[in-house]
Amino acid sequence: MGDEMPPNPRRATLATVAASAGVSVATVSKVLNGRSDVAPTTRSLVESLLQQHDYVARRSEATGGATIELEFDADINAYSTEIIQGAVDTGAEVGVGVVVSIRRGADRTSAWARGLVSVGRRAVIAVTAEMTARQLTALARANLPLVVVDPLNLPRTDVTSVGSTNFAGGLSATQHLLSLGHRRIAYLGGPATAACNQARMHGYRAAMEAAGAPVTPGYVREGHFLYNDGVELGAELLDLPQVPTAIFAGSDETALGIIEAARARGLRIPEDLSIVGFDDTQVARMGSPPLTTVRQPLREMGSVAMRTALRLAAGEKIDSHHVELATELVVRGSTAPAPAAAG
């Protein structure tokens, strides 16, 4: 039942905690500031009540420094830097700081939420994060607005999120390969439970079905949108008895890994194998050959997330809890007509 509690409508004050403890407001303040002139038993009682009341000290209100927490649950990569750039640029325009951090899901606790507020955060932007009901409740109790970018899951329909038209992107990527005469097309995506991956995969399947091209058993694989997934799982695809002539990868990093797996097997890109990525990060343009990919407007997504977080922090209402920005196929050198011998 604790996970389903609504946001705390009234923030506890120093006076609330002091009254509960039977001490003065000054004593509670001393405990918060780590002063030593408080009896151990009193300190223990006050600390317990501070936690019980979910008290959060807003240091930013004293210093005037508003900041937004931009959190990632994995190491920073080419995808991440595009999101960061969009958020930072927007923050600079409006005079709001952005603090970038890496925090795994298990690290998001009530203490985490209270700590963010105590150091001046006004909202949290979580990128490709999997948020639990307990974590959402911790943020609500701390009165910290949340915006999720490219969410892996949406445990509640009222969670504000920013994404892209993943289904349309998967559809256009596969239709491009089909238009080049490919029929043996595989999909190597991300986690099975990730909403963005599901949408891209369904776009792929919809295009294949509309073209009457059956999906060969073993042609759909799940990874984590990483380069090593492309190397390892791409190798599995290329070692199948019926080798695909084209692969749609769920990220640019995965696509570059597939290219490496293909080269290790003496396959030429794109003469023997066509590859389409997803994201259009800098690595797509620097690939050899440059990567055909589905462009996500990543910087714009970071910017929209930032502006939305600031509106929520200001208590404004937003028109929609979920915003999807348009994707676009960008054709470069990693795709070509299917080999003449392919059936």
UniProtKB/TrEMBL annotation:
Gene Ontology MF terms in the entry: DNA-binding transcription factor activity; transcription cis-regulatory region binding
Domain HTH lacI-type, residue spans: 12-63
Entry keywords, A to Z: DNA-binding, Transcription, Transcription regulation
SMART domains: HTH_LACI (SM00354)
Cited PROSITE patterns: HTH_LACI_2
PANTHER family associated with the record: LACI-RELATED TRANSCRIPTIONAL REPRESSOR, LACTOSE OPERON REPRESSOR
The protein's name in its UniProt record: LacI family transcriptional regulator
